[in-house]
């Protein structure tokens, strides 16, 4: 009997945590659809006219999704050998936060901020899309971005310093009567301009201000080249160097410690030695 | 007599479907001009002041173009061996849709939406511009874009997730009084900002909102580098690898099955074996 | 005596057309300053408040510059062996157009459009800046841009087709009440959006329109990568291939046929065989 | 006694000018925090509502920071062998300007422009972040930017000429009634558009103006590729060429002549021969 239960637990673990079996794939696809549907619900609820018309439908749908998530959350805890580790892991917390907003609203009414909690559900998509990794599409890309990160950070930091100094100068030149009411707002304008976004809610009106703004824009135009150049060069070198592909990894995940990235045909977890099934 | 007709059909096929003979080239150039003229007509018609003044002229011109397209459509059906295949092909449908709007308006009056049908005529330009391929200009480019497609899709998907989560947060921070009336609109603003378009019809007004917007913009500034880097690197590697040029292909198209990309001097269709002339 | 005059003519030719001698360099620098000053005049004149205050000063300055340009134009004609060729050359026409606006205004009064003629003077800067070529700064760059031109044209043409089709759809979706008053204006909006400029004077108001606009923006975001990738890759390959530098060219220009790009130490014009001095 | 004082001076020099010892690192981190805090103060002071509420707190904080900077400035002068050289160096002047604003305000009241002086303090961050160089993150990047500088300058200059000519034409086409009140403003609009910033405070209203604007935008879209391509290519070639890393440099700085970039294990200054400790 206990053996039987263990067998059943193993199968459930395979379905929930892996994507190698048809049932596992189906589970992932259904979960993906439920998550996207729940995000759509959050969006539609925020539209007054829709919420007024279909309030009941939206409310019931949210309850259905909440219950589905609750079942999934409990199943995940049951089938893992070390539940505490799952509950305190990044995705464990995301899963919990995705599930509770509707329960909270029972006690405190529909708090506005719960929408943000519910939007976090989107992060769960990334777990399912670990599948995407097996498409081999973004391996070099991820590596190139990682290699560029430090340089782009240094670069963006320099941009920030430029924005603060130029923002202060623009504040002095344009002044409050032209919308540059204080330095933070002026720095905000400077970032809007340097990044070539250009909302236009704040715009220089004095000739000197417009001249300085032109310099800022040409500067921004010139430096937008830098991060692009970095990624481009890194990616080129990644593509050239990493021709020998990484060994094919399957989507199994250890029932004991949740580690993934096991090689094809691996029999034991490479982290804790727990047998894989 | 029948032989004679077949000969005539063959010549017409050459003129309409190919660009190797002077008559074929002339046909393509005339067709290109007619298509562009018809697009110009659609545009001018939508301008109230012009339509009021020159309504009759525009109406007659549209009829002339419609009749020209009708003749061309019939000629294409006659000269092809398998008319059904042409009619149901992508360009066959485009050709039909390009021809019928004026006929439809006879029965239903000038429906507004017909303008969209007529704008589709522009897609026909691509068929004529298969000529462009022979300029050798965009071969590597097309290959680089194809090779980048998967990676750019993954990337744009990530951008979309970021936009939804940030959009929800901005909706909570700024609220309805500052133009972020609901989450879809807020996500729309987020996409406008991340892509550095920045219309400015919606813009954050609270200090916290402007701070978050600055982060979004700097993030957008940093990640605009990624797709550029991908295409750039792919294109570089395409240019390096594909030095041995593809054999020169002529503009013949099989009268039987419409297949093209026949090699120079090919006598038979590489797809159905039908003799090429 | 005639020999003497010829000698004098030769020296003047050297000063005006070349930049190898100190006098030639001085001439170029003075000319550059006069041109920039004249552009500044055109700009300041267009500012109402400045024109009202300093009208006389601006008027006299313009006359001084016009006379200087007249002298230069005559000197150029005199010192060249084939004046007709100079007068009908690109820079000959630019020089003439740069000189005459003030004379025209004598007969017809201050026509507004003369400002454009005067702004053309800026094009003369390029002739002087052929100097820049000798800095070796932009050789590979120019070559890369030339090599990319065809591909970028094909690409921009495709962008234009996308803009027309999407513009027509946006016109139908948003309609006149939201600022998309006709298709050309709608296409204009589409180009503004695809290029990530985003003025915001026209912006979609309906949810469907905003959804389509989001697609346009993400599309624009994705395809902005393409021309960048092209130039980047071309430039990389240019830099790799063209390591063996082009022979150093001096700034001499043939007195007979105006040809330049003579090699260092060349004694005769490589185009017409006329002796260089 | 004198020996003792010299010893003490040496240690202080090490702490202030170098980052190799724990004390030196601590000093840099504290200084960084004080600078950032002082910038935050400048920003908050400019916000009316905050200044009204916390005026006293901001005033006292500014005094504390001014006194800290004064002590640091004096310490820097004392510990350097050639104080005159430090005082007249770039960072010496920045340090002085960072210190004096509050003292000036004692005599002249809170002059508005002092905010700009105080914002200059941010430049001091760069000195501390010479640390960043040792992270090896931006070595190739800096070299690539330096190598690209000349080409990007030539390019930006060409952009400027285009902006002036197109700006003049737009001024003539659109005229004052559509916001293009004079040529400088029109050129400003042109730069805003070419750089794809697009504020939208000025936007073409006439069909011809919108058509020209479309050309400007597509042009801008095409040429934004150029500087990116330059940096990207330069950076790629830098990365390929400079594989043999530069020798590891430590953060020591000569007590005599302030020269830095000494090799690891260097015993004497490579510039003046003064012993390093």
From TrEMBL, chains A, B, C, D:
Any one GO biological process: action potential
GO cellular component, one term: voltage-gated potassium channel complex
Sorted UniProt keywords: Ion channel, Ion transport, Membrane, Potassium, Potassium channel, Potassium transport, Transmembrane, Transmembrane helix, Transport, Voltage-gated channel
Source species, domain of life: Bacteria
Membrane-crossing residue ranges in chain numbering: 26-44, 56-80, 152-173, 211-233
Occurrences of domain Ion transport (ranges): 25-241
Primary localization: membrane
Lipid bilayer topology: Multi-pass membrane protein
GO molecular function, one term: voltage-gated potassium channel activity
InterPro entries recorded: Ion_trans_dom, VG_K_chnl, Volt_channel_dom_sf
Cellular compartments annotated: Membrane
PANTHER family named among the record's database cross-references: POTASSIUM VOLTAGE-GATED CHANNEL PROTEIN SHAB (PTHR11537:SF254), VOLTAGE-GATED POTASSIUM CHANNEL (PTHR11537)
Protein name (Swiss-Prot/TrEMBL): Ion transporter
Species of the source: Neotamlana nanhaiensis
UniProt lineage: Bacteria, Pseudomonadati, Bacteroidota, Flavobacteriia, Flavobacteriales
